[in-house]
């Protein structure tokens, strides 16, 4: 490692740039901290996502990516910091505003998070049945379409319980549920982990298509570097509880930052693994 990178320099959070005049800020996270007991997991996250943009978040396992995402979905309470998503200030929400906020987003959880008591059809159709209050006959064709978009044989699996599907199929059912309402914001926590390469490409294309056709804003956590570089307008790197880089793929690729260099090379020696090897 080159000497100019002191620990302090390496852990330095990036300062979020001014919002360009032609962009609209959609998600603004500032000084977000999260502690679980004595463990200080998020140590001052600053991140901006512009409307219509796809940002991917990279970081080692256990670095706090899902913890960050859970703040955005509201499944973790905001202890310290500020999160604004569109008109919603997540520190200042009541039940009604949470409901309204959640209606505007689609979430793909790291683990499928399907309801075991419902069929595949009802799991995927739930946002339409509950939020839009459509009838079953109206919902069914949209469920079938959503399942086809994630390459699932809809007609064969509509009536099955999620537990009758393989892990990768469950994941795709979760994806279908997230996209069925074509929401303004999609939050994906490892949408392609455990899927075959063909389906991975399909999911990447779907993200790009939703962005291109509907202007969907997406925040995607992934360990899949190919996917990150394919779909992202900007890539953010989470390290030691902070966002230490946030830039377009080309800049990330060319970065001399030792943490990024190690992540991109997959090397087992470097700052990411120092704690385990020294
Ligand atoms: N509810 C919780 N209670 C206590 N500790 C937690 C809780 N949720 C997460 N943590 C801790 O926070 C850290 C970050 O976890 P998180 O799930 O956010 O990591 P991650 O970056 O998503 O990892 P992976 O890539 O493996 O999914 C871990 O050390 C985890 O043990
Ligand atoms: Mg995670």
What does this 3D model show about the protein?
This protein has 278 residues and is α/β, with parallel strands linked by helices. The chain has a domain at 1-103 and 231-278: Rossmann fold, CATH 3.40.50.300. 39% of the residues lie in helices and 23% in strands. It has helices at 7-11, 65-73, 95-103, 120-131, 136-149, 154-157, 167-179, 197-214, 225-231, 249-254, 258-265, 274-277; strands at 25-36, 39-50, 54-58, 80-85, 88-89, 105-108, 185-189, 217-221, 234-239, 242-247. The strands form two sheets. Strands 6-7-8-3-9-10 form a six-stranded mixed sheet, sandwiched between helices. A four-stranded antiparallel sheet has the order 2-1-4-5, covered by helices on one side. Helix 4 runs parallel beside helix 7 (167-179) and helix 5 (136-149) packs across helix 7 (167-179). It starts with 6 loop residues before the first helix and ends with a helix. The model has no long low-confidence stretch (mean pLDDT 90). It binds adenosine-5'-triphosphate and magnesium ion. Residues 36, 41, 59, 61-67, 110 line the site of adenosine-5'-triphosphate.
Instruction: Write out the strand line-up for the largest beta sheet, numbering strands in chain order.
Output: 6-7-8-3-9-10
Corresponding CATH architecture of the domain at 1-103 and 231-278: 3-Layer(aba) Sandwich
Instruction: Report the strand count.
Output: 10
Oligomer: single chain
In terms of structural class, how would the helical and strand content be classed? alpha/beta
Query: Percent range for helical residues?
Result: 25-40%
Major β-sheet annotation: 6 strands, mixed
Tally of individual helices: 12
What's the CATH H-level superfamily name of the domain at 1-103 and 231-278?
P-loop containing nucleotide triphosphate hydrolases
Distance between the termini: 15 Å
Can you tell me the CATH class of the domain at 1-103 and 231-278? Alpha Beta
Report the bound ligands by name, code or SMILES: adenosine-5'-triphosphate, magnesium ion
The CATH topology of the domain at 1-103 and 231-278 is Rossmann fold
Radius of gyration: 19 Å
Beta-strand share of residues: 15-25%
H/E series: HEEEHEEHEHHHHEHEHEEHHH
Q: Which descriptor suits the 3D outline?
A: globular
Q: Averaged pLDDT, please? A: 90
Uncertain runs with pLDDT below 50, 5 residues or more?
none
